[in-house]
Design a protein that fits this description.
This protein is α/β, with parallel strands linked by helices. Helices cover 33% and strands 24% of the residues.
Length: 171
């Protein structure tokens, strides 16, 4: 199976918009999450301690006019992983992302895609396939208009129903 291009390369080729849909309540663990679970807090005043290359990639895209939005559909009460994601989302916002949250209980009448994805300029999707434990199994690039138009429509519907990050209160 061919490897998908790195995220940074895909975003570098984006001219207007990149949207990311997340629908899982648990993703693969990482050291930052584990440190937080152990009581570690981020020193937000020390940007060098939390700013990652990913944030550079987002900030560069936003600086050249790309709108970057992320919507998260979550169960309530949230998992520890989602509680941590909410905490670290400040970094995404400081990089220039717009982030919204939608409780799964408010998504009953919405048609949700079965996989998380990034959609670049509305016509190229990087679809993520996860194992049940949250490990990423593989990414798949999809550029067929029949699929990307469905993903774009689903994202806009979710985005419209979701709550902006600064207004969403963890349950």
């Amino acid at each position: 199976m061919p490897q998908t291009p790195p995220f940074g390369e895909l975003l570098a080729g984006t001219t207007t918009s990149a949207v990311h849909l997340e629908t899982r309540d648990v993703y693969f663990s990482n050291p930052r999450f584990e440190a937080w679970r152990g009581g570690g807090e981020i020193d937000w005043a020390d940007q060098s301690s939390w700013w990652l290359p990913f944030h550079d990639t987002i900030a560069e895209a936003v600086a050249r006019g790309v709108t970057v939005r992320r919507a998260r559909v979550v169960a309530e009460p949230v998992t520890d992983y989602i509680r941590w994601e909410h905490y670290v989302t400040r970094a995404n916002i400081e990089a220039g992302e717009q982030v919204r949250w939608l409780p799964r209980s408010q998504a009953t009448t919405l048609l949700l895609p079965g996989n998380d994805y990034w959609l670049f300029d509305g016509n190229l999707a990087r679809v993520h396939h996860f194992a049940g434990n949250g490990d990423l199994v593989r990414d798949e690039l999809v550029d067929g208009r029949a699929v990307t138009s469905v993903l774009a429509s689903a994202f806009e519907t979710i985005w419209s129903a979701a709550t902006p990050h600064d207004e969403y209160k963890i349950q």
